[in-house]
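Example record used in the benchmark description.
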Amino acid sequence: MRQLIECVPNFSEGRDEAVIGRLAEVIRTSEGVRLLNVDPGKTTHRTVYTFVGEPQAVVEAAYTVIREAAELIDMRQHHGEHPRFGATDVCPLVPVSGITMEETAVWAQKLAQRVGEELGIPVYCYEFAASSEERRSLAWCRSGEYEGLREKLTQPLWKPDYGPAGWNDRVARTGATAIGARNFLVAYNVNLNTTSVRRANSVAFDVREAGRVLREGDPLTGKIVTGPDGEPVRIPGSLKKVRAIGWFIQEYGLAQISMNLTDITVTPVHVAFDEVCEKARQRGIRVTGSELVGLIPLEAMLEAGRYFLRKQQRSTGVSDGELIRIAVKSLGLSELAPFDPQRRIIEYMLEDGAPAKLEAMSVRGFVEEAASESPAPGGGSVSALAGALGASLGTMVANLSSHKRGWDDRWEEFSTWAEKGKQYYNALLRCVEEDTQAFNRLMDAFGQPKNSEEEKTVRKMAIQEATLNAMLVPLKVMELSLESMEVMKAMAETGNPNSVSDAGVGALCARTAVRGAWLNVKINAAGLADKARVAEILAQAEELARKAEEAEQKILALVDEKMSK
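Model output (structure tokens):
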């Protein structure tokens, strides 16, 4: 798998469009990386950039833009609402695919060393790249902010991991930088119907993991209670893996709870939103919406959509687009600016600009592509599409059944079936593309050179491997299509009787997919030299075809019985 890491540098400039644009241009023109998002904030005086690529390219681009920021941003002139201690305030590396956190941390250390030694910037390594336990915390590394940096650098405890351990004209201009490796962090702000920072902070302290210090009497001005160790006693907040503060955003004219969700598997966005809503309500404040800073993983948005649908007792087996729409509406993500999923969801950004996939074509586009002189997409891809269409019909009946009048107590039953159907049609849609790729791979193998004996051997092995793959992809289509028929059968038995014919058509499509894919398995069998493997695959395919025929007959009998009534 290709190694990909994400880099999310935060620069202490959110107002000068020329500087913001120049830093974006440096990243955009760096070889091997892709700039995904630029998110400036005037009040915070900070801009968050997000780019992605293979490790070496990302580290090179990060170094180059940090160097540029050191020349363009003067920390002696900087003031903003967000905590900061340097021109490049923080530069985390985040593993995306094909790379471990430990490997990502090594790349972060390499970047930190180069920035410290070549650019003369004090660098503190944090999170998974930290050199000590306390330095894992970004807040600890940045404590005292820029204004406290000169004094910090005189203390052994605060000696940077890399770069100068003293104050000079260069450090006065650039400040320090935190470079680390971390999990995917979601920067998320919740909007309040108040302008009071003090009240916003009260809500932030209610929810953030660190909570607030315990005071005698008045919770704001009372004497701080200390424990036996002399440290302040803290009242923990209600949300794990959440950092939060309250602030006032001049450009919006409202206060926000600004949160970093450091592990969205522990506290997802929708849980944080609802908890802030409740804590704000208890203090007489209302949440009006929210905003994301930077990008968010697709699954986080899908789970938010499912969460809010479950609260409404609605089926969650709807399309990804519908789940995202529900999430955006429920979280109020478009209150301050339109939320464009294609520009804010990381997987969609990575796909942007890639060659169009068969599954993304219009109906007419796919039909005309199949009808063209090119042999692919062919019967295998069409079979996979037929299977996906069948599963989608079963899913539709489940979704219709989940909100049928008088069946309110059965919504979860049908939602579960709709989720299953969605999994099947998504898997089969992927097979539409996989089958064409399998054919192209086989053609590429036949096209390999065969001049020398070594080339002939390599070509033969490639052909055999590609032929096997060309059998296994349609075999998978057969398996998925047969399994999807359980959804149509359940819907024919217990689903909305007004849609029983759709369950029947879904079964017919699934059976067609099985039979069509079977033909593709058989036509490729002749090219595979391993006859024992051929016999095994053909026997498996024949059994799948037999079961699909039986399932189709049972489902159609159920359909006919219900329609006759």
